[in-house]
Amino acid sequence: MPAAENVHTTAESFRSAVEKRDLAAIERLFAPDIRFYSPVKFTPFEGRPTVHGLFGVLLRTFENFRYVGEFSGTAQLGGTARSRSTDRSRSTDKSRPTDGSSGTDRSSDADRSTGEAGAEGAAEPVGGGAEADAHVLIFRATVNGKEIHGMDMLQFDEAGLIKEFTVMVRPQSALSALGEAVYAGLAADGLVPGGASQG
Question: Residue 108: what pLDDT?
Fold first, then answer.
């Protein structure tokens, strides 16, 4: 585990960079192999360039974003993942489209468009990883008129960089608004196919 002062410095630098909306400073705190676990997508966003692009969208999407609390501790890193067999994962729910092309749930579209397994071949967590220092930042924000209450959990590598980033939000109605807004932003930035890709 990294030294406690490294973790504290990274966590404070991250909070400051987000509050200043300084995307370059945020990216410098990411490990090259960072994984970002989103509440709107089953599989993680992976790698510094991808997560950097996602943060660009998030900084535009959240309105009146502010951190309102924080605490530190430890937590297991995410385990490796394996694909479920298509026989096990095929949905029997006839009310949902199987092609992921409509409805407000964009997670399967995003999973497929980023080259990762979608709902029909979704990755399945396997066990837990090693324990890592963790820092949780509690936030409030608005997305498309919906109030969001959430937590950012940062976990660190040996160098004190952010290795895993997990976001959890409530309530469900706000999560739906967030998912739609983030997907639209990713499509607009050309990070996922679909929608109007405007430069």
Answer: 43
